[in-house]
Write a structure and sequence with these properties.
Number of strands: 0
Strand content: under 5%
Distance between the termini: 52 Å
Number of helices: 4
Largest sheet: none
Structural class: mainly alpha
Shape: elongated
Helix content: over 70%
Order of helices and strands: HHHH
Oligomer: single chain
Radius of gyration: 19 Å
């Protein structure tokens, strides 16, 4: 038997990411001694979250192209191969949704703090 805990819900993972991000942003502002840069730091973190969100999408695209090329060269049908990798794609999609939501929220925070 495995002692793996069930995965955390989406909203809880989002709150953890936003909490850690806010902690880092405030600590950087404290170290620099200027709270006027909070908006800029939140904007930068939203750009970082967007980059993190895009990585699984491009990874899935690349693996789909590679899988299609392999299926064509071996004369197999593509649909069963894609169905077999559905769980991996779902995990990547969840990461994309999570970090995209974090990027949108931190961007809105950067606008509100102006």
């Amino acid at each position: 038997m495995s002692d793996l805990k069930p995965p955390r819900p989406f909203w809880l993972r989002l709150l953890i990411i936003l909490g850690v991000n806010s902690l880092v942003v405030v600590l950087i502002a404290l170290v620099l001694g200027d709270f006027n840069i909070l908006s800029n730091l939140y904007f930068i973190s939203s750009a970082v979250f967007l980059v993190i969100a895009v990585v699984p999408a491009f990874s899935e695209l690349g693996s789909n192209i590679r899988l299609a090329g392999r299926a064509i060269s071996q004369g197999q049908k593509l649909a069963p191969l894609l169905k077999a990798r559905e769980a991996q794609y779902q995990h990547g999609a969840q990461q994309t949704y999570l970090y995209s939501a974090a990027a949108i929220i931190t961007f809105l925070l950067s606008l509100v703090i102006l």
